[in-house]
Structure formats: structure tokens, C-alpha cells
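Fig. S4 source data, part A: sequence.
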Amino acid sequence: MSSMIIGIVGKPNVGKSTFFNAATDAHAEIANYPFTTIEANKGVMYVRKPCPCQDFQVTCTPHNSECRNGTRYVPIEAIDVAGLVPDAFKGKGLGNQFLDDLRQAHALIHIVDASGGTDAEGIPVPTGSYDPLQDIDFLEKEITYWLKAIIKKSWENTARKCQMEGKHIERLLAEQLTGLGIREEHIYHAIKQGNLNTEKPSTWSDEELLQLSNTIREISKPMIIAYNKIDKATDACINKKEVIEKKGYPVIPTSAESELALTHAADHEFIHYKPGDNHFTLNDEKPLSDQQKQGLDYIQTKVLDRFGSTGIQRCIEEAVAMLDLIVVYPVEDEHHLTDKEGRILPDAYFLPKGSTAKDLAYKVHTDIGDHFIRAIDARTKRVIGSDHELNDGDVITIISNA
């Protein structure tokens, strides 16, 4: 079972690499010019979930995640796609390389400069002089036209196969779009929404193909907007948030620079702060310079007090919520909740809602999935079968002869 990946996208110079750094344990190069991020970077982001250690009243020893006071930080992969520019789908800028990186993403966090301080190419301009709404339209267009170009490449052949050989158009398109994270059910719903004639796809107009591509994008690549540099935005730009929301996207005010500053200060023990918090506390044992104090005061008043958080953790969790995932904890011993090394509740895995015990077995290891015998629910101690649907927070022992 492939891992879920969140794509972090946007034009150059909107704070995308800063967001990626703030959200992950990786360190992308941060600089104030377009195309800093040439290669797609990968990292790990963390989502807060209640840890089962509270229910079982045990002290857990996490391996692939972290537990802080009963909150488990569950890992999910992120990919930082290099900055898009208009007409990337035509190969402009670094063009298709960016769009190809998007193939791996199941949901997108689109970083938009809320301050209106970067133009369509990512060049700095006076604050408030560029309309952030244009960035939303441009990214929609780039991905839609990219998908349409892929469909059009062998469209006549696809339509003929459908009509002459009686093959389902949804299946043929799914085969063509394989590897893009687009499934047959996405295409089925997009065709239904467009009220297209599945008997005679050869009659579909160019406009209908474009609309179909747009709907496939909406369904298969759900997106939230990280409205970044919010502390530098004018009231007029902040109010545009509501206009963007009317387009159907969740819009989260963010300050990636503030989050990065806070996490660095916390790492060096100057402050006590957890991602997602609406405040921090100073560590009296580590005195700060006047400049450091001013910087932290700015973050507290301009970001945390005004918007409730830096928005970074909220973006991660909203993106994961769009994917409808559950978290499951596999253990080898259902009585002691340990793995073979004696670690208690060591791993936490994301799975799509509706996943079964056998799906979890494959997530742990292919051999375990192949040789699955049965599973045990550690909460009820009941034996469950391969097709038993798992719930969020389940603790499961897999028995296999691998």
C-alpha cells in the first residue's frame, strides 16, 4: 500500500521552502529568489492525534512517531515541489518537472502570498500591489491543462477502444492516468458530474475534455490554501480570504517565518512551544537578547494573538482531514502492547478510512500481508478477520506465518 503524500505547491518566492522547513524535519534551502528549490524535496510532517497510551494507562515508547503528554505526532510524507510559473504546462520555466512532481501528491497545500508582495513570476513587488486571487486561478489552470494534455495525447485511440471494443472509458482513462494518484472512481465521478455520454466519448468536445480534466483535478487533488506572510498583509488582502473561500477552498492564515523562528527557539530551549500552540513561554534559565525578545513579541502580537496560531500545524491537519485517513497502531503482543523489541505502542500508521486488517498487514510489510492468518483487536482481545474494517485509534496485532 503506497504512502500518502501531501504536496506543498505554489509559485516561487511565496515562503514555500520556509513553510516546508517549518512543517517538516527536513531543511530545504531558503533564499529570496525564484527557483531556489530546483529538485523536489521530501520531508516528514506530523499530525496530532490522541495517543492510546492514555486509554491503556501505559507509558509508550514511540519508534516512528512522538508522544508529548498523551498527544501522538503521527508522520506523513510531504513533497516540496519547486515553484510553478504561468504556462508551466507548456514547458515554461522548469515546466513539466514541477507538474511531474505533483504526480506523487494525494492532496495539496497551496502557499499563497497573502501580502500581495510577489507578482505572477515570483518577483518581489510593493506589498498589496498583486492580487493573491490570481495565484489560485493560475495553479488550477496549470494542473487542469496538464491533465488535459495527458488525456489528449492518445484520446482518439482511447475513444475508439471504448466504442469498438466495448471497454469502459473510466477504466481506459484510469490506465492512462496511472501513477498520478488518480483512480477509476475519481474519473467515474468526474464524468457523472459533467453528464458526459460514456457510450460515445468520440463526441466529447474540447471544452468538455477541459471541464472533465478540471473536475478530475478537483476530486483527485484536493487543495487547501496556506495564506502565508499574513503578518505583513494589509486589511484589504486579509479580507480577500473570504473571496477565496467562496471558490470552495479552506483558507488558513499562516506565517511560516514565525513558525520556523518559534521551533528554532524551542529547539535551543529559549522557549517552551509545541507546533499548533497559540502561545509560548520563556525559559528563565536562558536569557534572551533585546533583539530576540522583540522578535518573539512581534510573533506573539502580530501572529499568535491575532490569528490563534502560526497556521502551519493547522494546514497539515486540514490537508490530512481532506484525505479521510485513520491512524492505526500495530503491535506484536496485544497484552503488553509491544513490538518484538519490547517498545510499547511503537508505531502509528495512516491508512485510508475503510482499510482492513489485511491492509494494515501490507502496510507493516509485504510478507506479513502475503502470509496473513488473522488479527487481534488489543482493546477487546477479539480475533478479527482479514476483511475487518479498522477504526481510528485501533491497536492491532497481526498474526502471520511470514
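Fig. S4 source data, part B ends here. The two ends are 18 Å apart (CA to CA).
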